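At your convenience, could you comment on the folded chain following this short note?
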Amino acid sequence: MKAAVLHQSKSPFVIEDVAIGKPGPHEVLVRTAAVGVCHSDLHFLDGAYPYPMPAVLGHEAAGVVEQVGELVRTVRPGDHVITCLSAYCGHCEHCLTGHLSLCTEPDTRRGEGEAPR
């Protein structure tokens, strides 16, 4: 698929072909229909927030679920969805008390040595 890739802050995006792997156990693959570039993306672009490069920005998206990982139970292929910057487990104390942005459960993170998403 094509993506606007940021290789270095304060540099132009480069339109490139990127490979998308199958979703992991807790992941969902979404065919993006629309995406916005918001103010936090601009912070990555101008270098105000350090971020591993290369990166594909635009975390506020809408699309259709293509595939789901084996442990995903809340959506299925064909569902129309929107995305969120925060990854949260939904069952820890932070999530259950409405503080989703504080979730630090390991199942919301990529494993050591796993390719970035």
In short: The chain is about 10% helix and 25% strand. Residues 2-108 form a domain with the Quinone Oxidoreductase; Chain A, domain 1 fold (CATH 3.90.180.10).
